[in-house]
Each structure stands twice: as structure tokens, then as C-alpha cells.
């Protein structure tokens, strides 16, 4: 770490090191309370911690595997699949809104496409069953289309 490598045994350097350690602890507590993305960490601590120190803290947390956006994606998608009925498109939008890199999101979707497609088909069936009493077939199809489900999946 840059701060430790440039450490000289002076009171000023000791204070800088102490402050850096406090900042690192603050960020660590933030990400251990709830899994976070790199972008969420940057947004939270922008203005509170210098950009240089924040970059160094994030790099340290990545190396120690405390901050891993791909793992975050996996966890979030599992949570969405367990709690909600979402299309693959809606899942993507939710992940993008967390500030995740689109290439990383696309890689996850590609790696797990079959499982996600199966989940999406189950969601279609759940939605159709739930909405059947109050909506016509055409209204259900329109509803599904608005939610990001692809039309050819309904046939």
C-alpha cells in the first residue's frame, strides 16, 4: 500500500497513517454491513475521503476479496429470483442502477442464461395465473411486454 510504503517515522506520517486506517475501517464497516458495489462505495465516500485514498482502499478491498462486483451480481440475482417475479431485462436494469459495469452484468447473464431463462418462464406462468381472474389474455400479454418479457415466449 502506498501509504505504508512511503511511511517515515515522523509524527505527521503517523497521523496520516492513523487517519488512513480510520478511513479504511469506515469503508470496511460499510461494506460488511451489507454487500456493496464499487460504485456504491465511491458514491458514499466521495467528498469524505480523498480520491487517491479511496482508490487505494478500494484496491485493497478488491485484493482481499471483500469487494467483488461479480459476486455482488450473483447474490443480487439470487435474491431477486427468490423474492420477485422479474424478467431478465428488469434484472439487468436493477443491476445497472447499482452502478455495475454493463460488461460484467452481460457476462453474468451470458454465463447463466439458461437458468435465468427458466426462471423467467416460471415468472410468466406465475403472472398469467395471478392475473387471469382480472385481465384478458391480451391485457396479460401487454402487461408482460411492458415488464420486459419477450413476446415469442408467450406462445
Quickly describe the structure.
With 155 residues, the protein is an all-alpha fold. Helices cover 72% and strands 0% of the residues. The radius of gyration is 22 Å and the shape is elongated.
Structure description:
Helix 2 packs across helix 4. The protein contains nine helices and no strands. By secondary structure, it is mainly α. The chain has two domains: 2-63, no CATH class; 69-154. Helices cover 72% and strands 0% of the residues. The protein has helices spanning 2-5, 11-33, 38-45, 51-63, 69-83, 88-97, 102-111, 113-131, 137-146.
Radius of gyration of CA atoms, rounded to a whole number: 22 Å
Strand content: under 5%
Number of helices: 9
How many strand elements? 0
Q: Give the biggest beta sheet.
A: none
Tertiary shape: elongated
Structural class: mainly alpha
Average pLDDT level: 88
Helix content class: over 70%
Poorly predicted regions are none
Order of helices and strands: HHHHHHHHH
Q: How many domains make up the 3D coordinates? A: 2
Cα end-to-end separation: 57 Å
